[in-house]
Structure formats: structure tokens, C-alpha cells
Amino acid sequence: MDSPPIDPAGDWKQRLALVIDTMRDMSRQTDPQEMVRAYGERIRPLFPDVRRLSLSRRDLDRPQYRITRSSTWTEDINPWKERHRLPLLAGGFLAELIYGGQPRVVDELEFPADDPAAEYLAGSRSLLAIPMFEGGESINMIVLMREMPAGFPREEIADLVWRTNLFGRATSNLVLNDQLQRANRALERELKAVGRIQRALLPSALPEIPSLDLAAHYQPALRAGGDYYDFFPLPDGQWGILIGDVSGHGTPAAVFMAVTHCIAHTHPGPALPPGKVLEYLNCQLTEHYTRLSETFVTAFYAVYDPGRRHLCYANAGHNPPRLKRCSDGSLLSLDRVGGLPLGLRPDVRYEEALIELQTGDQMIFYTDGVTEAHNPGDELFGIERLDGSLTNCNLQAQSLLESVLASIDEFSAGRAADDDRTLIVARVR
Predict the structure, then answer these.
(1) pLDDT exceeds cutoff 50 at 3
(2) Measured distance CA(421)–CA(362) in Å, rounded
(3) In this predicted model, what pLDDT tens digit does every residue of 206-229 receive, in sequence order?
(4) Neighbour count for residue 276 (Cβ, 10 Å)
(5) Which CATH number describes the domain made up of 202-428?
(6) Element of type H or E holding 230
(7) What is the DSSP string of 286-313?
(8) pLDDT score of 7 more than 60
(9) Hey, what CATH topology would domain 49-180 get?
(10) Buried b (16+ CB within 10 A) or exposed e, 45-64
(11) Percentage of residues in the chain with pLDDT exceeding 90?
């Protein structure tokens, strides 16, 4: 129901109350079309005898323009979603106004009968054109018309231009916010899809390796990440264990992780020792994928021989796994060999080292998102705290993994992960 007319020169308290109610109503709006409708209803009592037109020249060339709103329309058209229904005109008096880019007051309106907008101007004697600026240009325009001549006092024009443009900016912000939300929802769907694809590349189940109890954990910082782990069955009952970390975060890292996975699973010919596997990966990445980017991959690859309980390994710039020797309580780092990360130089050679494991040995393969987990005070979890979680030699692999994760969670105290976190726990049975 329309509010009763308000005398523009009347009680200032009455006008102030209307303004407060209008601003309160506007602050609740989230849809630009509804906001324009509600605003129109609110200000109609201030201008009960004014006809209104809204014009736009967005994405048009002179002298074209569109009628986006008219107080004479009986149907509510949404100019943002139903642009195809908006009248497209060219030339004439209104084109002169909107492309002029200045406020214009006409006390005695005259226009030719064949003006493209004659049907919208008919019956009006006076007119006020208010440009609405965007990027410094008059992209839109509000045209107010009255049946009487000289219907717009000059002293009110500055205030009308001011208010109209502020309302236009508020409406534009709602439009941009709606576009941003829709874009974010689309991006979120894509990121979820990328995350699902990435998880499909990780082992769906851990292998049954004689004399080795396994557990694994993967947690991307975003929907998708660049951490990677894998297991490869090899001749003579041996198993390859690979853990890697692509530089960067999010979707770009996830895509490169998928590339690394593909290369690792399409190696031709017989199985290679750890150093040669890393050299093959490095050669493929540098030749085909990293020459035009700054992306690289850290990787640790080991071959485990269940019969002899030997672990032969090579390292391409990755965090050396930690080994807790429960027979004497010592802590070791598998750091006897190392080399540059994959994808930096094509001619890198990776040496190998061999360690004989013992019953009860606990190994932690991890990415730097584990040791570089932060607490609210911006401290790092670090190697010492990781080693400190390897205190109970009676735990099986899964329980040991959960113990490490609990230590990280307690230390982080609710702070979200800044980087992807991947852990492989192996216990020699």
C-alpha cells in the first residue's frame, strides 16, 4: 500500500522519519531488483506526481540506448536478468541527454512527434535528467518528468543528483555482490570436482605388505592440493613407496600433482632403483612441463624388500622421513642422500642409500605441511614435536598416525592448515 503524500517543504521530522525508515529498509535488501522496487515505493510520497524513466547505454554505441525502467509500465521487468525485453532505441532527445553526461533541466519540454521516445515523453511539460556515473562516465540516467511546466526547482537539483548517484552505487554493489557470489559458487563446484579427481589419484586402499604395517593421512589446505603419495608393487615381492609435494597450493598444484602421478604410472620397461625413478620423473617434468613455469616437486622414493627388511631410498629435495628405533629408543633421519627437487634441472643424478630395518621400527614419511603447521602464536610444529609424538613403541601404525595427528591438532589450537598435510606411518612387524 502506498504511503500518503508528503509535502517536500513540510515538517522536517516527518521527512527525517521517512529517510530513516528508507535507509533501514535498504540495508536489509540483498536483491538489486527488490531494492529498486522498495526504494521507489519509499520515495513516491515525496514525488507523487513525477513520472520516471531509467536509461542505460551500457555496452552500446552512440546514439543507442535502452529504456530499463518506466513508471508507466504495468509489468515489472528485471533489467539485469531480462535485458532482451528492454526497448532499444536510437537517437532523439533522450540519446542527446544520456550521451551528454550532464544534469539537464527543461522547464518547457518540446520534442518532435517522430522522436524515438515520443511515447515515453508524451504528456510531460518539464523534465529533469540526472546522469549516474560509473568509471567517470554517465552510463545510466534517471529522467524525471512532470505534467506542469518548470516543475523542478533549481535548489533541489544538486541534492537529487547526489542522492540518486549514491543509490545507484548501492544498487551496483548489490549487483556485483550477486555476481561475485554466483562466481564463487561456480568456483567452489569446480574446486570440489578437482578435489574429487585428485583424491581418486591417491591409493584407494593401502597395500598389504608383508612385515610392514601401514597407515596414511592426506589433508589439503584447500579443496585440492599438491601433496602426493603412492605405492607400487615391484618384482620379487618388493614395494615402492613414494611421497611428494608440488610447490604452491590449490588447483595449480593439484594439476601438477596429477601430471606427476601420470608420469610415475606410465614408466616403460622394467622396474628401476629409487635413484633412477627420480631421474626419470625429473627428466620428464623438466622436458615437458616445468620449462615455462616455476613449479617443482619435492619427492622421496624408497623400495622396501619385505624378505630382508631393507629400505633403499633416494631423495629429491623432500623432508627426510623420521625413524624411531624402538629397540634402543634412538631417532634417525633418512637423510644420507639428497638432491635437487624434480623439475629444476634436467641433468640431476640421485644417489641411493640403504638401511636395514628392525622389528618395531617406526617410520614417518611426511610433507612440510606437518612440521610447518602453525599455532595461534605463529610458532612451527617442527621436527622436535614430530619426534616427540613417536614415544609409544607399542602402537600399531593407525594408532601411531592418530597420535601424531592429535599432537598437531593440540599444537595448532584450532588454527587452519596453511599447507597440505600428508603422513605415511610404517611400522616394521
Answers:
(1) no
(2) 19
(3) 999 999 999 999 998 877 788 999
(4) 16
(5) 3.60.40.10
(6) strand 227-233
(7) HHHTSTTS---EEEEEEEEETTTTEEEE
(8) no
(9) Beta-Lactamase (3.30.450)
(10) bbbeebbbbbbbbeebeebe
(11) 58
Q: What distance in Å separates the CA atoms of residue 54 and residue 67, rounded to the nearest whole number?
A: 6
Percent with pLDDT over 70 in the chain:
96
pTM tops 0.90: no
Q: Is the peptide bond before 273 cis (omega within 30 degrees of 0)?
A: no
Q: How far separated are the first and last CA of the chain, in Å rounded?
A: 80
DSSP notation for 55-98: EE-TT--TTEEEEEEETT-SS---TTT-GGGS-EEESHHHHHHH
- Give the dihedral of Cα atoms 405, 411, 413, 416; nearest 10 deg: -60
Paired sense of beta strands 310-316 and 322-325, if any: unpaired
The DSSP output letter for 197 is H
Per-residue pLDDT at 300: 98
The residues, ordered by sequence, that sit 6+ positions from 428 with a Cβ below 8 Å of its Cβ are: 211, 212, 213, 309, 357, 358, 359, 360, 361, 362, 363
Q: Give the amino acid at 233.
A: P
Please report which confidence band the pLDDT of residue 33 belongs to, taking 50, 70 and 90 as the band edges. Answer: confident
**Which sequence spans correspond to the domains of the chain?**
49-180, 202-428
Residue whose C-alpha cell reads 544498487 in the numeric block:
171
